[in-house]
């Protein structure tokens, strides 16, 4: 069986990380090396995760309670929870299903006298031109934060030049993962220095825990290899365990309802060392291979089933999302054929403020309800991609005839 996802990290990277766990590296030198390797007009700050960077940013701004943060309606739950933990109000901006980013019209509807920040995410590997949204935010004297956690492609993309903050993730299932870590670019020097000072007061992530993390995810990478994965699935079924739940739980970096304090740690020296290695050696060929496979599938499916964001010109297909009318039947058909397909269980729709029901993000809500991810990573063959496309086409065109 083809696994749903393979960690984008090599065995030599695991070895380097474990070796680094035993070395007494200077953390400050590691920070500086990463920031120099990142090389952008905006200086950057290395954090434990994007969640950590987002929390640190909001802590530093210290906005008045009740201030509103306009957000892409579809996001990971912690991003909205962090906003609420700071006494702020997340306000969803419904997405255009073709681009997966809010429109300027959606932004204008969400505005109020309490709005202070706009946070827009590039979803599923898409990279949209956010110039109009940034200009609209700045016209209202709002800060614009660009979430690029799902859009890393190497040194050729560092976010929009006019964003006030840009967030890049190297978490567990991200491209070029370092099993943690994030690079946060901050345009304002005063804010950046204040964030750096505040983060320096945090405890440092345990070296031992990071070493344990390396061992855990090396095992998961091994399990995701095609022969092993089939045995893993069959073994779970034999003992009555839900392999889907096991996998979903295993890749959650902070759990489903992590207290905000868990984000407030500095990355350990071995994590910084591995992150530096991944940034200095971007897997450009693998990224292009995955993008090529994504385009191949999209060309075959675009006329049969909605592929959210599939037509965005700049797309690395970090994942391949579909929006079929009957997600569960499609998942079962693909799993029966040896393709472990899953739904968008790691995402949520940002809740609408009770006093602003007109902002309910209906498009994003429907998208999440139907969202299905096809397996997609460089190890997949062209023939496997074509087989998946044929199964999807048959399921969509002849749903009653497909088991």
Describe the structure in your own words.
With 403 residues, the protein is α/β, with parallel strands linked by helices. The chain is built from 15 helices and 14 strands. The chain has helices at 11-21, 27-38, 50-61, 77-85, 104-110, 131-139, 189-199, 207-224, 226-238, 243-250, 269-280, 284-301, 327-336, 362-370, 382-397; strands at residues 44-47, 68-72, 74-75, 89-93, 115-121, 143-147, 165-169, 182-186, 203-204, 265-266, 320-322, 342-343, 348-349, 372-374. It has a seven-stranded mixed sheet, with helices on both faces. Helix 6 links the parallel strand 5 and strand 6. Helix 1 (11-21) packs antiparallel against helix 8 and helix 1 packs antiparallel against helix 11. The longest helix has 18 residues, at 207-224. The protein is globular. It starts with 10 loop residues before the first helix and ends in a 6-residue tail after the last helix. The mean pLDDT is 92.
């Amino acid at each position: 069986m083809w696994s749903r996802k393979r960690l984008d990290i090599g065995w030599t990277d695991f070895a380097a990380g474990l070796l680094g766990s035993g070395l007494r590296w200077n953390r400050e030198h590691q920070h500086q090396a990463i920031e120099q390797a990142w090389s952008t007009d905006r200086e950057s700050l290395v954090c434990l995760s994007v969640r950590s960077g987002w929390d640190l940013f909001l802590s530093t701004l210290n906005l008045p309670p009740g201030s509103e943060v306009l957000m892409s309606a579809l996001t990971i739950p912690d991003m909205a929870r962090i906003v609420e933990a700071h006494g702020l109000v997340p306000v969803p901006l419904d997405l255009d299903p073709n681009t997966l980013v809010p429109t300027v019209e959606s932004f204008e509807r969400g505005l109020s006298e309490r709005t202070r920040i706009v946070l827009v995410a590039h979803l599923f590997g898409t990279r949209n031109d956010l110039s109009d949204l940034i200009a609209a935010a700045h016209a209202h004297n709002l800060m614009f934060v660009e979430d690029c956690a799902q859009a890393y492609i190497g040194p050729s993309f560092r976010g929009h030049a006019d964003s006030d903050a840009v967030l890049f993730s190297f978490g567990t299932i991200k491209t070029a993962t370092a099993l943690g870590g994030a690079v946060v670019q901050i345009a304002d020097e005063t804010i950046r220095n204040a964030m750096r000072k505040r983060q320096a007061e945090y405890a440092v992530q345990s070296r031992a825990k990071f070493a344990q993390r390396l061992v855990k995810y090396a095992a998961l990478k091994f399990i995701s290899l095609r022969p092993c994965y089939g045995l893993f699935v069959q073994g779970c079924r034999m003992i009555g365990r839900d392999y889907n739940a096991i996998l979903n739980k295993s890749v959650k970096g902070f759990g489903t309802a992590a207290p905000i304090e868990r984000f407030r740690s500095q990355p350990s020296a071995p994590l910084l060392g591995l992150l530096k290695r991944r940034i200095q050696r971007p897997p450009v060929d693998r990224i292009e291979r995955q993008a090529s496979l994504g385009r191949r599938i999209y060309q075959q499916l675009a006329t049969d089933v909605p592929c959210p964001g599939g037509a965005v010109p700049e797309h690395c297909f970090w994942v391949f999302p579909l929006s079929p009318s009957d997600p569960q039947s499609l998942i079962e058909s693909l799993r029966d054929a040896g393709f472990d397909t899953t739904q968008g269980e790691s995402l949520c729709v940002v809740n609408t403020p009770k006093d602003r029901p007109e902002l309910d993000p209906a498009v994003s809500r429907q998208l999440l309800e139907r969202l299905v991810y096809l397996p997609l990573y460089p190890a997949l063959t062209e023939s496997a991609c074509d087989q998946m496309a044929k199964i999807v086409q048959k399921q969509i065109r002849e749903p009653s005839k497909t088991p």
